[in-house]
Amino acid sequence: MKMKRRLVRRAFTLVELLVVIAIIGILIGLLMPALSGVMATSRLNECQSNLRELARMTVAWSDDHNERLLPFGNTTNNWDWTLAREAAGYTKTPDTYVGDDPPGVFYCGESDVLVSLARLCGFGMNDYVKTNATPSYRRLSDIRAHSSVVIFGDSKLTALGPASFDPRHRGKVNFAYFDGHAETLKSNEVRTVVSTFPWRDPN
Fold first, then answer.
1. Model confidence pLDDT, tens digit, residues 101-139
2. Which of 4, 34, 41, 81 is at a distance of 20 to 30 A from 57, taking alpha carbons?
């Protein structure tokens, strides 16, 4: 008569379970920086796309207003509100946006700017091409090198300049130009001389 073998299930010991948990923790620790980097790159690209769209909207605004440059505005009616109302067919007032989620192309995922009556946008407009700058640019045609002059960029202020750009993308900053293209620069690559590109057209 053959004896039947008893199948005994072997359970994990506490030590083995702790080793498995430790290995999973190490793997997560290795993957997190990579995932964080992917997410940061995604936000950078989305920000760049938003800036391109804002640049195109601004040129379209000029086309619709006899080539006038978009006015910089004032503390309660900045350029961002002008574009937002134009895009919405002037059906919304600034207070419509307050308390809402960040409004589309007007915002950057890395920005900590809060939407308010004084500030809709997470970007700044070039402080050296606004219509009350010296010397002033009144029309789009006053800027000859559209591909070399910045119009918008990452900034904590509504104004953008060498002292106010915000390298919020891991030490990098996004800029959009009058021809509609955008680029990413390291903070030490941004020129600080305001009399020439990318802040002014020296021609």
1. 446 788 888 888 766 655 677 899 998 887 665 566 678
2. 41
